[in-house]
Amino acid sequence: MRASAVQARKGDVMGVPLVVRGLVLRALVACAAAAVLAPAAGFAQVPSLNARYASAIGGLAPWTPAAWREDFADHVLLIGSYYRLDPRLLTALVAAESGWNYTAVSPAGARGLGQLMPGTAAGLDVNPDVPTENLDGTARHLRRLLDKYDSHGDRQGLALAIAAYNAGAGAVDKYHNIPPYAETQAYVPRVLGIYDQLAATLPLPAPGQIVAERAAHRRVAAVTAKKNSSAARVAQPYVITVDPNGSFTKTNQP
Questions:
Q1: Is 97 a catalytic residue?
Q2: Residue 252 backbone dihedrals phi, psi, to 5 degrees
Q3: Distance of alpha carbon 125 from its chain centroid, rounded?
Q4: 180 Cβ partners below 8 Å, 6+ apart?
Q5: Are the C-beta atoms of 156 and 188 separated by less than 8 Å?
Q6: DSSP label of 177
Q7: Are 190 and 72 in contact (CB under 8 A)?
Q8: Which domains, and CATH codes, for the chain?
């Protein structure tokens, strides 16, 4: 079922209550110096980073409600910063995987935004049906593959990491190249094509930019992570703190 059939409220974005919101920080309020940062008369205000990424996600998935796009953009930027990922690459990969349909399920059983297989999701300790957890697991999995194949930061290494996301690291290691599978051979240029398109139109966050837009009051939001247990998944809170220089720290709470 297409997610567009779901009517979301602003306070219940992606099926998750605003006070819970998954694995990362929804955020921290607008700048206390808003009066200083307000545009002078006669000049248009530059769109925020969130607004630009939300617009890009809307272009890739025009069926998504505006509130969802803003929420997706928030999480892409925050998770990207936390895991040292180019948010444009994460945006492109999710677009290729699910078209930003968080209810997507493949014939093979891959689920959610990043199309995580159940075994992969379990290894990452995330619930693939919760969009924020899925996005966090997708980013972590991609980060590990980039560390393995793209240590030099070149295009070939990036292509191998993307191929491994689709076909598995074992297949990439076996062929020492993009595996000769039709799906993977089509998948890699698709992700890279979307990434190149986004890289030409979207900026990377400058150091401290996310903090400047969201954390003037340095408020820390508690969010909830789902942990596996023998009986059921139970909520365990943790917080992500954001330093003025843009550094993110995730801390488990008792």
A1: yes
A2: -70, 145
A3: 16
A4: none
A5: no
A6: S
A7: no
A8: 3-252 (1.10.530.10)
Burial (0-12, 13-18, 19+ Cβ within 10 Å), 190: middle
> Which pTM value belongs to this model?
0.69
The label of the residue with tokens 């995730």 reads 250
**How far apart are the C-alpha atoms of 24 and 132, rounded to whole Å?**
7
**Lowest model confidence (mean pLDDT) among 60-64, 88-92, 214-218:** 214-218
At 137, the amino acid letter reads G
- Of the listed 97, 133, 183, 213, which one is catalytic? 97
The residue with tokens 């190249």 is 177
Cβ neighbours, 10 Å, residue 161 = 24
Angle at 220 between CA 214 and CA 223, to 5 degrees: 105
Instruction: Name the token pair of 144.
Output: 């590990």
Res. 235 pLDDT band, cuts 50 70 90: very low
